[in-house]
Amino acid sequence: MPSINCRGRLMDFERPRIMGILNVTPDSFFAGSRVAAEKDLLERAEQMVNQGVDILDVGGYSSRPGAPRVDETEERRRLIPAIRSLHKHFPGVPLSADTFRSRIAREAVEAGACMINDISAGNLDSNMFATVARLQVPYVLMHMKGTPQTMQLNPEYDDVIMEINRFLARKIRELHKLHVNDIIVDPGFGFGKTLDDNYRILKHLDTFLWHDKILMVGISRKSMLFKLLGGTPGDMLNASTAVHMIALQKGARLLRVHDVGPAREAVDIFMQMQRV
Length: 276
Known about the structure:
Layout: E1 3-6, E2 9-12, E3 17-23, H1 38-50, E4 55-59, H2 72-89, E5 95-98, H3 102-111, E6 115-118, H4 128-135, E7 139-142, H5 160-177, E8 183-186, H6 195-203, E9 214-217, H7 223-229, H8 237-249, E10 254-257, H9 260-275
Parallel strand pairs: 3-4, 3-10, 4-5, 5-6, 6-7, 7-8, 8-9, 9-10
Antiparallel strand pairs: 1-2
């Protein structure tokens, strides 16, 4: 099982890990993930830490479908102080910076982050791969078709599983050439996919293990759940737990979630099933 190096700390994935979502944005799709003031940020982070989170993922740019573009100055204003504060108050908790901008990535690592989570896999900033190579931090490589502004405008695939796998394989080769080896792959649920595409990806999630990288899923409270079941993101905790268990059974080793406690319970049950 691959592992990653976070600021000299080796993190293994024999037991699946939990990444908690912290959005310092006013418009992320799930209101419960948004934090504005530093006090709220630290309270939410403390709650996640107490529930057993392994990584805190901090984002300052909403990537929900159709979200307005945020300029680099505003993203920096939101994200960097948040990472700096979290690193100060929770020095033992690995921090991930959710950004597709290479300069923001560099500043985030300087502020205390030890991982970059890039929704664009380098497609929105041609300097990202070289920056990650210089920083020598783990990198989340996610598939997205288009941009947050365009990705849900009638996305089409001949074969969604094959296309994503080819995309990931090509990007991994590019990263390996730059000596970036701590790579986490994410098929990108909801990022330029139809409802059927998302469930096809879930059904065939184990095909992404072919890359011999840690497999991350970000399904928590997403539209693939409430568009199927009805309701809103706030109603989707039970559905999120259900798909998390499916993802674990299909080989996911990192769950990116809004609700750490329920995800931890899913991991505990899954691990017990492996032991008996």
